[in-house]
Each structure stands twice: as C-alpha cells, then as structure tokens.
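User: I'll paste a sequence; please echo it back and then give the predicted structure.

Assistant: Echoing your sequence first, then the prediction.
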Amino acid sequence: MSSKPYDPSQDGAEMSFRDKMSYTDYLQLNDVLGAQKPISDAHDELLFIIQHQTSELWMKLAIHEATSAISAIRDDNPQPAFKMLSRVARIFEQLNNAWDVLRTMTPSEYTTFRDSLGKSSGFQSYQYRAVEFLAGNRNLAMLGPHAHRPDILEKLEAILAKPSLYDEALLLLKRRGFDIGEDGNRTGWRENRSENPNVLEAWQQVYSAPGKYWELYELAEKLVDFEDYFRRWRFNHVTTVERVIGFKRGTGGTSGTQYLKKMLEVELFPELWRVRTVL
C-alpha cells in the first residue's frame, strides 16, 4: 500500500513562520520548557519539578478566576462568578490528578535527589497561600516563609486587605436582606472570622427555599463544590507524602504528614457545611 504523505499546506495550513507568530512564540515555550533545571543526576527529579511547576501554573489560573469571582459578587452580579468558581473546582480536579503521576515515584527514587532540595518545600508556595487567603483561610503565621520577599508579601497583604470570597458571599446575603450579625459589620479583613449562628440561619433560609433564593443557593453550591475539590486535593497531598516519605519531617522543616493532616481540619466555608445538618 502506498500513498503520498499528507501535506497540510494543500488545505491552506500556514507552514512558514519566518515573519509570523508561531505556536512556540505565542506560548513562549522556549522559556517554559527551559525552566526545568534538575540539580542532581536522578532520573525522577524531572518528574518532581514538572509536577510542581504545572501545579503552580494551575494555581495561577485559580487565583485569576477566584479574584474575578470576588469582583463579580462584590458588584452584585454573582452569575458570572458561578462559571468562574466551577472552573476553580475543575482546576483542583486537575491538581488532584497530578498526584497520581507523582505517586509513580517510589521512596527509593525520591531519596536519590531529596537532599538536593535543601530547605525548599511546597509549604512555601505563595500562590497556594494566595488561594487560601482568597478563599478565607487567613492564617497570618503563614506569611512568615515570605518575609524575605517584600514583593511577595505585598501581593499577599493586598489580598488580606480586602474581603475574601466567603466574606463577599456573606455581604451579598446582607444586601439581599438577610441578618448576618457581626459579619455584616466587619471592617478588618486580615483575621480569620468565627462561625456565626446568624450566618447559619441565613443559609438555612436559602436552602429551605432554593427557588425563591436561586442565585444565593447556586452561589452556595458553587462554593461547596470548590471546597469539596480543595479538600480532596489536601487529602491526596497527605496520601502522596505518606506514601513517598512516610512520617519523615518535610524538607521545609514541617512535621510532614502530621502537618498536612492538621490542614485537613481547616474549613473554608463552615456554615455551608453545618447547614446540611440543620435542614
């Protein structure tokens, strides 16, 4: 069987890019693909670098979407936020899938380059911290690892100076006529808020009459969807770390799996989980 090889140019495909922007140019692939620089000879270090770099790229998009969702809710236009929050949830689904690839690395393989990491650790990811701050988990102690970088601190402080995603959802409840108690009078946003019975009652009203409060009901479910995938990501993180290093301390000095298990207890939108019990 013989056939002439297909030539895309015959169908009009552009084949010459001497003076035109190409796919490689647009995506700046020379920079992206040149950013993986293993510092050991270990075969699996490239996997480790790529997994974490791609995770940071996904988190960059999550920050972009979450920030835009916050703005939409603040402007009393929550419907565009629904799509953005759905996208954030799917981003964390992608991040979850990334753990499956990293788990193909065995403990023996990781030890061949772990010492090369020094004190660097995913615990120090400022984009992950930005995601948590945007969502509403505002643990100020987590600013510490970034104290040596004023540019990063400035970005994180800018997030802390404004209401979080959940804060904006609660303020929307207030604007729609619900009594949210002390959350309606907050002026400082840097500190974590406390669970509020008024907020729980407000969400209970929304969930008891979804047709009447459809936008608020839909917003609540998008927030729960986001936290659902976020929790799964945290759980898979714990499982992956335990599978690869057991109960060793993390490279950044944390207690490793014990630290990560503590993070599993953190709830971003507590009243939205409590309301399921009181309905």
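The mean pLDDT is 91. The CA atoms of residues 35 and 238 lie 27 Å apart.
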